[in-house]
Amino acid sequence: MLLYVTLGTNDLDRAAHFYDAVLPLLGYRRQHYSQEEIGYSADSDTRCRFWVVTPFNRRRATAGNGAMVAFTAETRAAVNAFHAAAIAAGATDEGGPGLRSYHAHFYAAYVRDLDGNKLSAVCESPE
User: For the whole model, what pTM was predicted?
Assistant: First the structure.
């Protein structure tokens, strides 16, 4: 359904440091870097699906109220690792790892990145 997702940043190098520490724990790594954007995907993907960019209009990037990006995690351990790495890299805790009421196996953790963008890692497999 979605081709890619883009979030804004006010400091691309700082964002790259953050996402380089967090996303590999979910199986995604940086595949692209320029002065305006960084792109991430799984090694098996043919294109970047997650982008962090400096806004095209050159205005300050802001986090969307009610917006969130949820990344698929293969295991609950990966959700735990994502949350721990994000907090260690400076993220704000928005809900530690655990089961949520959406369904019996919805295991998730929530953080805000260094620009205030809300992120989640979710494992829906029973363990």
Answer: 0.94
